[in-house]
Structure formats: structure tokens, C-alpha cells
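We store amino acids, C-alpha cells; thus:
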Amino acid sequence: MVKHIVLWKICEGGTQEDREAVLKEFEKKIEYLKTIIPELKPETRVALSYVGDYHLCIDGYFDDEEAVMRYINHPEHLKVRAWLDTLQYGKTTFRYEV
């Protein structure tokens, strides 16, 4: 099992309401991806932080590293990633075996 976590800084200069709107849209997009990308487990969650340097987080489990890479390179995931890239100004990723 592989744990995959991504943290973003979003809406530079934006308000918390701006970030909440992004979270809601991101949640919709992730829920859609769960229906078409079998590697993306139902337990995958997104969250918004109200403290700290990063604002938005996705937290999920995958069967193995190959499953992570299939998800990352899936065309529909790449569309979501491109959308979020327009809103983010910092990003970090953690991935480790569990």
C-alpha cells in the first residue's frame, strides 16, 4: 500500500472564501475521478486548512507505486491537475509505503 499526499498553496492574495470555493470544486472533480479511475480509492479525501502555510490537501491510498503512476498519468487526472495549476503558487508531495 502507498500513501500519497499532496499539499498546495492556492489563491495567492485570495480570501478564505476563495479557497473554500476552490475546495468545493476540487471535491467535485475528485469525486468524478473516483468514478472513472479505479486506482483512486473511495477513501481518498481532500481538505482545506485554516492554519499553516499550505491551504489544500489531497490524501489517498493506492495499492502500489504503479497504481499511483497510472492515476497521475490518467488523461482526466491531468485535466484536473492543469486546472489546479492555474490556482496554485506552491506545491509539495509526500508518498510512502504503509
Q: What stands out?
A: The chain has a mean pLDDT of 96. The chain has one domain: 2-97. The beta strands are 2-10, 45-48, 56-62, 88-97.
